[in-house]
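Q: Got a minute? One more chain.
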Amino acid sequence: MIVYGSSLSPYVRKTLAFGAEKGLEIENKVSRPDQPDPDFLACSPFRKIPGFRDGDFAISDSTAIITYLEALHPEPNLIPLDPRNRARAIWYEEFADTIVVAAAGPLFFNRIVGPRFLGVAGDESACLKAEQETIPPLLDYLERLAPEAGGFLLEDRITLADIAVASPFANLGHLGFDLSRWPRTKAYVEAILARPSFADRVVRERRMLAA
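A: Always. Here it is, folded:
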């Protein structure tokens, strides 16, 4: 199995962590944006990451890949079987993928991706808007729901909900975003990101960005 794309993307990181929590061996291949791997393009013709290949099966989009992995390797189940908790897990993934990433994306792009990898100046006004207006309400919401450190959002065990929600916080961590106003959220995401499925990869990302 191969996942294409840099784990600096919350979607790639989420997919790799999901596979790791399943105990799966997944190769991660990264190619330059200006020199895309033909195998990646065969998986993701619109160049969206992650791309994925398992033998002769190829697909893109993190949710599609995770759905495949869960069906192919149902144990341990990371998408709950209980109908209500299953719905909640899908909601948390949607919240992380389309709301948190959209809010935090301008920060990461304008302070890291643009200046560091694309050679373009960041838009600091967009960053300030994200920090002061867009992100805080999302953290207020999560603060009401976050379990104590070492806990989980659903069923007192790791699920897709935790994997999806924690992943974009690694990007905020790379930015040095201050979570002290949201102590439960801070402790919760730090505990999830300290799991083996995330920890080594996040450390490698941090070292790469510091180089």
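A: The chain has eight helices and four strands.
Q: Perfect, thanks.
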